Each structure stands twice: as C-alpha cells, then as structure tokens.
Amino acid sequence: MNNILHGLAKSMLLALIIFGISFSLMAEDGHHTPDTTKKKFDAGKMIMEHIADAHEWHIATIGHTHISLPLPVILIDNGSFHVFMSSKFHHGLEAYKDFRLMTEGAYKGKIVKIETLADGTESISPDLPLDFSITKNVAAIFFSVFLMIWIFMSVAGAYKKNAGHAPKGMQSFLEPIIIFVRDDIAKSSIGEKNYEKYLPYLLTVFFFIFLNNLLGLVPFLPGGANVTGNIAVTLVLALFTFAITTFSGNKAYWLHIFNAPGVPWWLKLPIPLLPIVELLGIFTKPFVLMIRLFANMAAGHIIILAFMSLIFIFGNMHEGIGLAVSPISLAFSIFMGLLELLVAFLQAFVFTLLSAIYFGLATEEHH
Amino acid sequence: MELVKPAIGLLFWMLISFGALLFILSKFAWPAITKALKEREKSIEEALHLAETARGEMKKLKFDNEQLLKEAKEERDAILKDARKIKDSIVNEAHNKAHLEYERMIEVAREGIKNEKMAAITELKNQLAILSIEVAEKILREELSKDKKQDQYVKSLVDEMKFN
Predict the structure, then answer these.
(1) Bridge partners of A72?
(2) ipTM confidence score
C-alpha cells in the first residue's frame, strides 16, 4: 500500500513538473487568433480534435491562449531530415522552413510543404513530407512503455528479492492480474503444453492495452491521449498477433486451412471455395482485432466528449440552459467514464483472449 | 475519413516502441515473474502435500496407538481373566483340599471315636465282667443257698448289661 502511495506521489510530482514546464511555455505561446468574434461551438470538430493525434500536447485553452506541451517534429522530405519543436508552428499559424501545420481543409492536422511557384504565389506541394514526428500519441506510447518497463522491472525485482514470501505493494496489486492472464487466458485457450511460449506476448499486450485504455481516460497529462483508439496502434498490435499466429502455425493448422479434413470434396475442387474462405480468415481475424479495439475505445471517448459537448451546445443557445443541462450531462459523463473503466479492462481482455485463441488454434494437435 | 487512416509516423513509432517493450519485458521481467510465481505455487503445493501426508501419518500413528492401546487392554483383560481363573482354581483346589482334609480328619476322628468307643465298650465290658464277677461273687456268696431266684436274678442282670 505504502509503495503504491509512494509511486502515486512520485508520478503526480512528475505530472506537476511537466505541467509547470508547459505553463512556462505559455508566455511564448500567447498568440491571439485574428478573429475576436465569438466562435460558434462545433461539437463534432471538438470531439474529432480530441480523439485525433496531434503535434502538440494540448492542455487547455484560456481565452485565445493555448496551453500545450510542444513535441518534436521529425520530417523526412526528399531524403533529408528536418527536426524541430512543434512550437515553431505556433499552433499552425506560422510556417517554419517551408513547412506548415494545417488546421483546416483537406490536410487538416498534417504537416505540408509550401512551394513557391514561379509567379510568386504559394501552394501546397501534393507530395507530403514523411511525418515521423513524436506526436501526442507517440509521446503517450513512450510514456506508457517507460511506465510499464519501470513497473514490471521493479515487480520482477520484488519477485527476486521477495522469493518465497507473500507479495508486497505493487507486486500484490499486479499478481492477480498476471495470474488471471496466465490461467484464464493463456492456459485455457492455448493449453498446458504450449502456453508458456506465448505468455510474455499475451502479458505485454494485455498490460499495454489496459494501461493505455486507463491513461486515455485520464483527462490531463500524461493521460488523455487516445492511444488505443487510434487505428495505427491497434494495427501494430494486430500485426504482432497475426505474425505470431502465422509463424507458430503447425502442420495441422495449415492442413486445416488448405485441405480441411472431413469436408466434402466439391468445396475444394474445382473451385477451392473453402481454402479461399479459410485463407481470408487468416487475415480477417487480426483485422477484426484491430477494428474492435480501435472502434470501442474511440467510441467510448466520443460518447464521453459528446455528453460534455451537450453543455456547450445548450450553452450556445442560452447560458441558463447550458447551466441547467450541465448536471445531467456531467452525470452521464461520469457514468460513461465508469463504464469506460470496465471497457478498458474488457477490451484488453478480449484482445488478449482472442490472440490466445488464435495461438491455440495454430498450435492445436489434431488426432 | 481521417480516423481510419493509419499515420505512417505513429505506425513506425508504435512498432518500434511496442517491439522494444515486448523484447525488454520478455527478456527481463516476465520470465522472472512467471518463474517466481510457478516456484511459489510449487512450494505451496508441496507444503500442502507434505501437510496432507503428515496428517495421514498422524492418523496412522493415532490408529496405531489406538490399536496398541486396544491390544494392551485386551492383554490386560486376558491376564486379569487368567489371574481370576488361576485364583479361582487355587481357591477351589484349596477348598477341595481343605474339604478332603476335613473329611479325612473327620474320618480319622470318627475312627478314633469308634476306636475309643470300642475301647470304652471293651473297657466297660471288662468292667462289667469284673462287676458281674463281683456281683456274681456277692450273689454267689449270698445265694449259695437260694437257688432258683438267684439264678433268675443273675440272668436278668446279664441281659441288662448287654443292652448297654
């Protein structure tokens, strides 16, 4: 318990320091948008901006001052690297080294290259520079990766130090989850014989998704990034599952795909209907994994944000209505937040369980 | 739809960082944790197994003790029974012996009495004979003259004596 409190205090301190840094950046970032008229609240835009990736870690906007943590931009343009901080763009207001961060239009949220044409006018180059920036999601991934390494290394150390004794602190908090993944996911889906080989991946993927789901629910730094609700992230996770499944497929697995036993011959010849379906299945399985996690997490974020938006939508009509709606809206948001806590665990569980089932299918022995 | 288009940069960094995470944890964290868990489970299982066997042994020991106690009791009972039997037989024997002795002694006594009695009778007879002789003498002396009456008298005397 003490350890957890200690760890919590530490991470809060870290968050405060980061927060402090970003506040110090406030002065520099204090640019005002030219239009001073009251802008109409656009819920869809706000929600999409919140769940999309960004080149800076937005914390708050007070008036027209954006408080955000600038992140490094890494661009590869025609084979040459360009590395600079995203604060150079001044939230998309200014161009830097011919590059501009678009805030509107077809290239919204992307960094484009500005070309000066022969007649002196500027236009957007059709081939975008390759963007390898440390975006908000990348930074959140790095943070969660370091957090996980720190947590599990210290837990592993505790197991070594505490060998043969009851678990303590963080160790006792994580042990039931580790055992749950081992017994109820790995062992039951893959089987006693093969599960040990896949356990490290299953544990890693489970805790990675779970931690990022939870961090995604934290509305401020270092949380708030929609990591598991981003398709690139779930694509990589699904890719790992796909690669492991494909490489560990045994003879029976491939036989089952290309020449399933116990199936009428006319399903295989002259048109290999079943093999085609099975072959597609190899790809649809991880594809579904990717979509499921992405859609669930993105939807959860959208719903919470939508409930919060209600306040502002009604507030735009009349301040009184906005105030009246806010308790209901808040209550729904809290309810959704609690539901999302459950979903955070559930989606991590489902992804890990399905991965384990696919590994189990690939390594199953047929008699 | 921007939402479902994976960004190349994020893909790249995710691949690198998740790969690194998987590698580092698989190499340094998970084996230690799963090994420790397994070992602890094994040791708990062993301890439970040991406790089970110890309990079984205890049970067996208790049973043995009870058996021993039972046997001891039985033996004691048997010994007691034997002792009682022996005692009874000794008492009986003693009794019988005593009885026999008693009978014998009675017999001896009876014999003695009989002998004494016979002796007494003989003595008495002798005495009687002497007395009779004396009587006879007296009578003879007195009745030498009287004949028939004396004779009768003597005869009656002798008869009386015989009844004794």
Answers:
(1) A85
(2) 0.83
For chain B, say whether A137 makes contact (Cβ under 8 Å). Answer: yes
Average pLDDT over residues A14-37: 42
Residue A259 DSSP class: S
- Considering the entire predicted model, what is its pTM? 0.74
Which of B4, B12, B34 lies nearest to residue A182, judging by beta carbons? B34
Q: What is the pLDDT of residues B126-150, one digit of tens each?
A: 887 888 788 777 777 776 666 677 6
Helix H or strand E segment including A68 = strand A65-70
Give the nearest partner residue to B17 out of A108, A142, A160, using CB atoms.
A142
* A164 and chain B in contact, CB less than 8 A: yes
Domain that holds residue B28: 12-163
Q: Where are the domains of chain A?
A: 2-33+62-131, 136-363
Residue A99: count of CB within 10 angstroms of its CB: 21
Residue B35 is assigned to a structural domain of this protein: yes
A160–B32 C-beta distance less than 8 A: yes
Tell me which of B8, B10, B43 to substitute to probe the interface with A (most A C-beta atoms closer than 10 Å). Answer: B10
Helices B30-143, B148-163: axis angle to 10 degrees equals 180
Q: Is A197 on the interface with B (CB under 8 A)?
A: no
Distance from CA of B31 to the nearest CA of A (A): 8
Cβ of B25 and A152 within 8 Å?
yes
A148 in Cβ contact with A211 (< 8 Å):
yes
Would you give the DSSP letter of residue A221?
T
Contact across the interface for A138 and B30, Cβ inside 8 Å: no
Q: B18-62: per-residue pLDDT in tens?
A: 999 999 999 999 999 998 888 888 988 999 999 999 999 999 999
Contacts of A70 (CB under 8 A, 6+ apart): A25, A56, A85, A86, A87
pLDDT grade for A25, boundaries at 50, 70 and 90: very low
How many distinct structural domains can be found in chain B?
1
Q: Do B40 and A164 touch (CB under 8 A)?
A: yes
Q: What is the pLDDT of residue B77?
A: 93
Q: What is the pLDDT of residues A28-71, one digit of tens each?
A: 333 444 444 456 778 888 888 888 888 888 888 787 788 888 88
**Portion 225-284 of A in contact with B at CB < 8 A:** 230-233, 235-237, 239-240
Q: Is B31 exposed, middle or buried (0-12, 13-18, 19+ CB in 10 A)?
A: middle
Instruction: Determine the Cα–Cα distance for residues A200 and A359; give it in Å rounded to an integer.
Output: 13
